[in-house]
């Protein structure tokens, strides 16, 4: 499988300008080019029929999804041993992309701006390993397997996949692709393979990677959350396909021609979608968001366990003292809850300060209480989500929902 890198993308554009006679062969080439080896990797995998489902029938939706992440850097002390900063750039891009904060969204064409989704998932490097010991969430493993990222056996030192999103970074995927991921339904039967394998030079936006490749990990996490490529489910004998998502057009593997409408003439294809293999990819649709949220609420592949409060405590992302289950019997109360812009707090004990804390234990507001028994607190500048109000040894859950 050919690896589609930025250089060849630029060369392709030049070729298109040079000669129309090259157009046909280049188009064919574009169809098979992708950084993602997801489909190829799964071709030989067979599953029992009954697991060919991915959604739970009834599910509860969280107002906040936090996913614990661990990186395993497979290396031989070469450039594949990427810096912490490069890994953080990958995490930053992932969090931007899943929260509609990536700056390149301004380039999305008019046909699709109304359905750009804020998926509402946050990814965090874990702070506790499976034994409960402190960790940075980055493992560096000196191994020749870094040259064999395409091999299943290279997924060494996997942390329990029902608790951690494992991301392996390698020097090479041996020319088959630059990255690939694992669907939830496959993870149920092959949990030891669950996670993402990615080449170092397609990871993050700095160092051995670059700004144009920072969305590759987002694409792979899309698969991890059960998204197909837009063309994966072939229709008839033709090159066009579907993805079980209503608001993504029928499409085929495409390049960055923004008005491309080859499958259904006059219906423009969403080549800027993260799940295409193009390098102008920059958005999820609302339909894709819904499918991912369903997946996060499904037991298939244990995706619904990743963000549970107990798992966030186990992986060090949630302070056990702040866990919602311990909240109650407080020496204060407040209203309204859910709140929008202000809350009125009533105190029954003399304390010195009232704190607003997020679910990672970060103190966002630390306000001195005066001698009065009630106080208005401005929460208008905090985004929607779940927080904890801390007053002495008392905690109360606060939801902001506007
Ligand atoms: Zn893919």
List the helices and strands and how they pair.
Layout: H1 6-18, H2 23-32, H3 38-42, E1 65-75, H4 84-97, H5 110-113, E2 121-125, E3 138-142, E4 165-170, E5 179-180, H6 184-189, E6 196-199, H7 216-224, E7 233-234, E8 241-242, H8 286-296, H9 309-314, E9 332-335, E10 342-347, E11 353-357, E12 363-368, E13 374-378, E14 385-391, E15 394-400
Parallel strand pairs: 1-2, 1-3, 1-4, 4-6
Antiparallel strand pairs: 5-6, 7-8, 9-10, 10-13, 11-12, 11-14, 14-15
The protein binds zinc ion.
Zinc ion (ZN) is lined by residues 36, 38, 219, 223, 229.
Q: How would you explain this protein's 3D organization?
A:
By secondary structure, the protein is of the alpha/beta class. The protein folds into 2 domains: 36-310, Collagenase (Catalytic Domain); 320-400, Immunoglobulin-like (Sandwich), CATH 2.60.40. The chain contains 9 helices and 15 strands. It has helices spanning 6-18, 23-32, 38-42, 84-97, 110-113, 184-189, 216-224, 286-296, 309-314; strands at 65-75, 121-125, 138-142, 165-170, 179-180, 196-199, 233-234, 241-242, 332-335, 342-347, 353-357, 363-368, 374-378, 385-391, 394-400. β7 and β8 form a beta hairpin. The radius of gyration is 23 Å and the shape is globular. The termini are far apart. The site of zinc ion has 5 residues, from α7.
CA radius of gyration: 23 Å
Tell me the number of structural domains. Answer: 2
What small-molecule ligands were found? zinc ion
**Strand-residue fraction?**
15-25%
| Second rung of CATH, namely the architecture of the largest domain | 3-Layer(aba) Sandwich
If you consult CATH, what is the topology of the largest domain? Answer: Collagenase (Catalytic Domain)
Specify the overall morphology: globular
Query: How helix-rich are the residues, as a percent range?
Result: 10-25%
Provide the CATH top-level class of the largest domain: Alpha Beta
Number of strands: 15
What class do helices, strands and sheet pairing give? alpha/beta
Main sheet properties? 6 strands, mixed
